[in-house]
Design goal:
The radius of gyration is 23 Å and the shape is globular. It has helices at about 5-30, 185; strands spanning about 35-45, 60-75, 80-90, 100-115, 115-130, 145-160, 165-180, 190-205, 210-220, 230-240, 245-260, 270-280, 285-295, 305-320, 325-335, 340-355, 360-375, 380-395. By secondary structure, the protein is mostly beta strands. The protein contains 2 helices and 18 strands.
């Protein structure tokens, strides 16, 4: 297993961000179309099992204030976008869990020709892991506040071809690093750096049906747990189909292999798939179905890695121009794997949201969420409900 030194990976990240900024500077000096959207939102709600407990559930009210900024700048050949969000949460009965999440994501693309495009992007995310989930699953009482995680990364890619091409090629190199910023004595072993190289090729068979190939090579280093360093190789083949605006289908199947640097850990392989289907039976209704299966990081202190299956269905229906309903149903089936054991956790989630667009700038929504866990070990099973009322204003 050959992995670039950490310094080289950090240089790649820094260079990519600088390149994105430089591209924006050159874009700003040309004739461009600029747009800035700002949105602020406020929510209030109720949670019936804040600590995700199997027994003795504890409830709380909560408040959320958030803002979203979207900056776009476009010219004839290039485009720059910057999305930034920040959300602050306050809980009536769990003040120690008050926190703020944020994200910053710049992207840039440049068209050399109608069928040739270079794209660069970066991301910086800060997220909060609630007690009773993730690292503290089933043991929320051991902590006085949740864990915080920070993820950063950048990628550069090149696309050749367009929707009418006989063939389309995409090549991408990405670097990311992630760490938990709390409880460093325990969580530093999860600090990871990943270099990801992937390519895809679509060949037009007929009409709007493409034969699709996808190859993905991922190298992951754990700075303080070198025994977990690994390579992951994935190969997929399938079809991409879009005969009409009514339906679109991407379906690929293949093989994935996980190889560890430490010979004491057994390599692994598994069947993999990626399914994405969109159906629009009318001008007012859209259904989106996605599913995938892949090896992923465990983000657990005692697990090496996990085999994750995801199934998700989203439905959106517009009753009128002002009123629409959104519903989402998901099932995540995770198998956490160590040299000693395999543990299964099935997560089900559902969301139903009613949206009322009062004006072009003012929106109201009512959202209900349900989550549950069914695990084949320990006393971990829980159910979680929340109800939220909110409003958003475009400035």
């Amino acid at each position: 297993m050959t992995i670039s030194p950490y310094a080289s990976k950090k240089t790649f990240l820094f260079t990519s961000i600088l390149a994105t900024s430089a591209c924006f500077s050159s874009l700003a000096s040309a004739e461009t179309e600029n747009n800035l959207d700002l949105q602020v939102a406020a929510e209030a709600g109720y949670i019936d099992n804040f600590l995700y407990q199997a027994k003795n559930e504890q409830s709380t009210g909560f408040y959320k204030v958030s803002s979203v900024m979207a900056l776009t700048s476009k010219s004839k050949q290039s485009a720059f976008e910057l999305d930034a969000t920040i959300a602050s949460y306050a809980f009536q009965d769990f003040e120690n869990d008050d926190h703020s999440d944020f994200s910053l994501m710049p992207t840039y693309q440049f068209k050399f020709a109608q069928n040739q495009r270079l794209h660069l992007s970066a991301h910086w995310l800060n997220s909060y892991n609630y007690r009773g989930t993730g690292l503290s699953l089933g043991d929320a009482s051991s902590l006085t506040e949740g864990d915080e995680r920070e993820d950063k990364g950048a990628k550069v890619g090149f696309e050749y071809g367009n929707e009418d091409s006989q063939g389309r090629l995409n090549f991408e190199v990405a670097y990311s690093e992630g760490e938990f910023t709390t409880r460093r004595a325990q969580t530093r072993q999860l600090d990871s750096e990943t270099l990801n190289i992937k390519s895809s090729f679509d060949y037009l068979l007929s009409g709007k049906t493409y034969l699709a190939f996808d190859v993905d090579y991922r190298m992951t280093d754990f700075e303080y747990a070198a025994q977990s360093n690994r390579d992951a190789l994935t190969g997929l083949v399938g079809v991409k189909w879009q005969t009409t605006v009514i339906s679109e289908l991407n379906f690929l199947i293949g093989y994935q292999n996980l190889k560890f640097e430490n010979n004491t850990l057994a390599d692994d392989d598994a069947f993999k798939w990626r399914f994405d289907y969109t159906w629009r039976p009318s001008d007012f209704t859209t259904m989106h179905v996605v599913s995938n299966r892949k090896f992923d990081e465990s983000n657990r202190l005692t697990n090496s890695y996990r085999l994750a299956e995801v199934y998700q269905v989203d439905i959106n229906h517009e009753f009128t121009e002002e009123f629409n309903v959104f519903a989402a149903f998901g099932l995540n089936r995770d198998q956490f794997i160590t040299p000693e054991s395999k543990r299964d956790e099935d997560y089900f989630s559902s969301t139903i949201m009613l949206n009322y667009q009062r004006t072009d700038r003012l929106n109201f929504h009512l959202r209900y969420q349900y989550k549950s866990l069914d695990a084949n070990y320990g006393d971990l099973d829980y159910s979680y409900n929340s109800l939220t009322l909110g409003m958003a204003v475009k400035l």
